[in-house]
Design goal:
Blueprint lengths: L2 H12 L19 H11 L12 H4 L46 H10 L8 H9 L2 H10 L6 H13 L7 H6 L8 H12 L16 E3 L14 H4 L7 E3 L21 H11 L7 H12 L7 H4 L3
Antiparallel strand pairs: 1-2
Helix pairs in contact: 2-7, 4-7, 9-12, 11-12
């Protein structure tokens, strides 16, 4: 257990006053450059970013259905199948790192990797720049925002700014945290208390109810994972099966779950995590209460998503 997890455990066991503050409401708005957001949205939905012109960012991140693709593994160009479950793009701006293995630090760095991944979009940034420069509309739109026009940096910047706009505030639980005690029902309130008492909140806390630290997957039992997580990046044995803790925001919309999509229901996830991560048993009534709480983490779609691309 890392130092941060240790201190959170100390806080949980020795203070009840910090329970509510361990999860923070999503802000209702962020400081955004709307010109970049609009251009970034256009690129997010444009298949010009893929080598075969059949795949867009939106192919794996369906913004009307949880911000992921609902598949165990995503399908890229030429029907290629990925090797890890696509996380939701919603609220990803609040993650301390991007990707399950945390290999990039922010959304801007994240943009290029799927584009150049041979089983995702399979393209090259050089070819995309050329394609975009052959499109007079894109040339005009980039020139109106960036003095350098179309470059790797400006493509990444505008898509990242759009992704930054993809926050989902005003979830029932956020309203509850802000003082509306009727925003969630009694079962959800009990589920939140169990979420704390069982120890789930040790890893799932903050604005994103996760996404702000790494942890080993399978602390008490072998999780039989073919993906080694952070070990793939660092090659350090202590990082084997260590992943970025996923956000639980809108989790009821993002099945299947885990980095390998092994579960299709939240009930199975809660039972598994309590047993394998926390070393505890849990009964069906407690599972149902925690799931009821998790359902209250579904927020509102941003206005930019409701508008046609």
């Amino acid at each position: 257990m890392n130092l941060k997890l240790y201190f959170i455990w100390i806080l949980i066991y020795f203070s009840t006053s910090i329970y509510a503050s361990l999860i923070e409401p999503i802000p209702t708005s962020l400081d955004l450059d709307m010109k970049k957001v609009i251009l970034g949205k256009k690129l997010f939905f444009d298949t010009i970013l893929s080598k075969d012109s059949n795949v867009s960012c939106a192919s794996c991140h369906d913004l009307l259905n949880g911000g992921d693709d609902g598949l165990k593994y995503s399908v890229g160009i030429d029907g290629a199948i990925g090797v890890i479950n696509a996380p939701t793009v919603y609220n990803s701006t609040f993650n301390f790192r991007q990707f399950w293995d945390g290999r990039v630090k922010d959304l801007k760095e994240q943009v290029i990797e799927p584009i150049e991944n041979p089983v995702e979009m399979g393209h090259s940034i050089e070819a995309i720049i050329s394609d975009l420069k052959n499109n007079s509309k894109y040339v005009e739109e980039f020139s109106n925002i960036y003095k350098d026009g179309i470059t790797e940096d400006t493509i990444s910047d505008t898509i990242a700014e759009f992704e930054k706009s993809l926050i989902t505030p005003n979830a029932p639980f956020d309203k509850y945290l802000k003082g509306d005690k009727t925003a969630i029902n009694k079962i959800a309130k009990r589920g939140y208390k169990l979420f704390i008492d069982k120890g789930c909140i040790v890893c799932h806390n903050g604005i994103n109810v996760g996404g702000n630290l790494y942890n080993k997957f399978g602390i008490y039992k072998d999780i039989n994972s073919s993906n080694f997580g952070r070990y793939n990046i660092t090659k350090r044995e202590e990082d084997r099966y260590v992943f970025k803790v996923p956000s639980l925001r809108n989790v009821s919309l993002t099945s299947p779950y885990m980095h390998d999509g092994r579960f299709t229901t939240l009930k199975k996830v809660v039972k598994f995590m309590t047993n394998y991560q926390l070393g505890r048993d849990i009964n069906s009534s407690d599972i149902e209460a925690i799931v009821e709480f998790l359902n209250t983490l579904t927020g509102e779609l941003p206005q930019i998503v409701k508008e046609k691309p």
